[in-house]
Amino acid sequence: MSLMSAFAPIWILTAVGYAACRWGLLGEAAASVLGRFVFHLAMPAALFLALSRMPLSGFASRSLLAFGLSTAAVVGFGWVGASWLFGRRTGEQPIWGMAAGYVNSANLGIPIATQVLGNVSFLAEVVLLQVLVVTPVILVALDRHTDPAGRVRVRRIASLPVRNPVILASLLGVACSAAGLQLPSAAAAPLTLLSGAAAPAALVALGASLHPTAPSRPELAEPPELAELAVITALKLVAQPVIAYAAGLALHLSAPQLLAVVVCAGLPTAQNTFIYAQEYGVGEAVASRAVVLTTTLSLGTLAAAAALLG
């Protein structure tokens, strides 16, 4: 399988969503309804199944530390830079940081890891890091944004796993994996069907959001500045893999380990960024365009990284 074949489904389903919205096949609320379906049903099912079947051993490693350092640096800079450079509001900053440093480790990462690295063992650790560490931080910040006074309430944060289906499903999946539990087929079968809809529905929603229909929120009224997308793209496709490479050298990773870290760090922005932005009603335009742009350009940057380090 070539890199092109790994990217093709993403481009095609995004185009399908755009065309469906343009031709009025799904109604004006298509992107919103599909996004909520993914956030509340399909994505939790997919995360639960993936994490419940994923061994937790070997989570701590030098390779993962190198990747984690690159993620922290880029997400942190994007989070702060969104305000410093472009005057983004507090609620939009987590989405900006996520767009800059949260990689597409699932539907794009798996085929690319298989093609370039030969296996998905390190990618599984990346998934765990993003789901168990990065995602809760992002969602806590977005949840704080929903508070009228912007306050951090301990009781509200403590109840977030119960109120947020993504975090709840992730925690339950990890608990099942740690306990060695397996769902009966009667429960696993419908969850498997539901989880299979997560990636395609998210991509169709992403494509629908790109159609210039009348927005329901002010932040959708006009697309983000070209400079914003340029900075996000540079952070995602250049800065993050370069930082991962430098951290890998400092940690004395072997050549195969270094290749795995750089390739995973160079994956484009995950479509989850758009789903979270849509669910919380902040930064949707930035998120949707960042996903499309970084996905398109990463075909070249990932190929270059594989050629240089492979």
Automatic annotation (TrEMBL):
Report the subcellular localization.
Answer: Membrane
Keyword list (alphabetical) reads: Cell membrane, Membrane, Transmembrane, Transmembrane helix, Transport
Membrane topology, from the record: Multi-pass membrane protein
In the record, biological process GO terms are: transmembrane transport
Main subcellular localisation: membrane
One Pfam match = Mem_trans
The domain of life for this entry's organism is Bacteria
**What's a GO cellular component annotated to this UniProt protein?**
membrane
Name residues in a coiled coil: none
Record keyword Heme present = no
TM helices/strands, residue ranges: 29-51, 63-86, 122-142, 162-181, 289-309
Q: What is this protein called in UniProt?
A: AEC family transporter
What organism is this sequence from? Micromonospora profundi
